[in-house]
Amino acid sequence: TAAVGVAMSTLFTRRDLPTQVLLLISMPILFVSGFVWPIALIPEPLVLGSQFIPAVPAIMGMLELNQMGASWASVIPKWLQLWGLFAVFFGLAMLGIKRRVRLLAEAN
What's the predicted TM-score (pTM) here? Predict the structure, then answer.
């Protein structure tokens, strides 16, 4: 989630915009995570798209472990998905930071 935050922050020029965007998308993220609304009742394209948000597999895995009594072996795919998302978003964050540094150097 931190890598997503850094990657997302490099897209904005004003400091207050990331907070506003996160505030607007936090409730839809909570609903598609399966915490509030059953995943079986959510349209499939939304469920597939939500798999790129790190909070969704984390919440799903936590619910399986804590509420449904799942074993660690059954949530390993979600754990690996989180590591894959970390790698992708960490790479995007690094690219965004390099771009931001380059733009600041050009401005000076």
Answer: 0.81
Q: Which residues contact 6 (CB under 8 A, 6 or more apart)?
A: 89, 93, 96, 97
Which H helix or E strand runs over 59?
helix 55-66
First to last CA, the chain: 32
**Could you tell me which residues come within 8 angstroms of residue 86 by beta carbon, excluding any fewer than 6 positions away?**
3, 54
Spatial separation of the C-alpha atoms in residues 58 and 4, rounded to whole Å: 14
Tell me: the pLDDT tens digits for 1-50? 889 888 988 888 888 888 898 889 888 888 888 778 888 898 999 999 98
Burial of 54 (0-12, 13-18, 19+ CB in 10 A): buried
